[in-house]
Design goal:
By secondary structure, this protein is mostly beta strands. It is built from 1 helix and 4 strands, in the order βββαβ. Strands 1-2-4-3 form a 4-stranded mixed β-sheet, covered by helices on one side. The protein starts with 8 loop residues before the first strand and ends in an 8-residue tail after the last strand.
Amino acid sequence: SPPISQPITMKTEISFQSADHTFRIFGDLYFPDDFNENASTLLPGILIVSGSGPMDRNGNAPTMKLNTSNRFAEHIVSSRSAERAIAVISYDKRGTGKS
C-alpha cells in the first residue's frame, strides 16, 4: 500500500492577556497549508477546550504517566474531507506549558 502522507499545516504561536492582566495564555493557531492570510476571505474556526485537569495545547497533562500528544488541531486543519477550510486554536491551560 502507498505511504500515508503527513498533514501539512501552517502553525503560529499566539498569546493573549487575561482580562485582569495578571497572566498570559499561550497556544497555537493552525491554518490549512493553502490558506492565503493576505486574502480578505473569512475563515471559520474551532477553539479546542481541554477537559478537567492541567493540560497543554497538545492534550498532555504533566501529572499523567501516559500522554497523548494527540495533535487533534493538526488533524482537523489538514483533513482533506472537509468541504471548507477551517482554522483551529489550541491553548495551554493556565499553569501548564508556556501559560
